[in-house]
Design brief:
Number of domains: 2
InterPro entries: NUDIX_hydrolase-like_dom_sf, NUDIX_hydrolase_dom
Distance between the termini: 33 Å
CATH topology of the largest domain: Nucleoside Triphosphate Pyrophosphohydrolase
Structural class: alpha+beta
Keywords: Hydrolase
Strand content: 35-45%
CATH superfamily of the largest domain: Nucleoside Triphosphate Pyrophosphohydrolase
GO molecular function, one term: hydrolase activity
CATH architecture of the largest domain: Alpha-Beta Complex
Helix content: 10-25%
Number of helices: 4
Organism: Gordonia amarae NBRC 15530
CATH class of the largest domain: Alpha Beta
GO cellular component, one term: cytosol
């Protein structure tokens, strides 16, 4: 038996038990250390992007959006799924979401953080960008939950305070706000928007487009 950290978790069998619009549920039979084969449930999900749009006054553009699974509105960053096909560029998706949700464009883009949102059961991952040098666009047409979204501008330091007070709980917003605050406070160098994204999900996109 090999030592800890060296086992190759080979998938012995795999089957899809649910294939929906935004996720699929896959059952994998995985070889464990010691020889046992264990079943692992994997939720395949589209990747996603989110944007910390920071204006010259140090304010972040946020949206208050109804989230049905928890039954209330949350204060969040502009964000959306990478559901435009396998070749969709995450930066293009981020630009689209910024325009569609808060009617903004940005001249400066950098990567703040890459997140594996719940790697114990899903491949869902998200890239958070920092967008600056903002300018306004004509209002976009919005539908369903997005038609009810309200835009709120929150000073970055106040957003951090609201995270720590439990008032901002969306995981993406928490990570993006704290990352932006750390980067700006400490003068950290951020990655180019085209930087490699190791954990960007591909399984669901391949399935939807007939490549799986």
């Amino acid at each position: 038996m090999s030592g800890p950290g060296s086992h190759d978790f080979v998938v012995r069998d795999s089957r899809t038990v649910y294939d929906g619009a935004i996720l699929a549920l896959r059952l994998d039979q995985v070889q464990m250390p010691g020889g046992r084969v264990a079943e692992r449930e994997v939720v395949e999900h589209h990747g996603a992007v989110a944007v910390v749009a920071l204006d010259d006054a140090g304010r972040v553009a946020m949206v208050r959006q109804y989230r049905h699974p928890i039954g209330r509105r949350l204060l969040e960053l502009p964000a959306g799924l990478l559901d435009g096909g396998p070749d969709e560029d995450p930066l293009d998706a981020a630009r689209r979401e910024l325009a569609e949700e808060v009617d903004l464009a940005a001249d400066s883009w950098r990567v703040l953080a890459d997140l594996a949102l719940s790697p114990g059961f899903t491949d869902e991952a998200l890239r958070v960008y920092l967008a600056q040098s903002l300018h306004a666009l004509n209002p976009a047409e919005r539908h369903d939950e997005e038609a009810d979204m309200a835009v709120e501008w929150v000073v970055l330091d106040e957003a951090v305070t609201r995270v720590m007070a439990g008032e901002i709980v969306n995981a993406t917003a928490v990570a993006g706000i704290l990352a932006a605050s750390a980067a700006i406070t400490n003068g950290l160098a951020l990655r180019d928007p085209s930087a490699d994204w190791i954990d960007q999900p591909t399984a669901l996109q391949s399935r939807k487009h007939g490549d799986a």
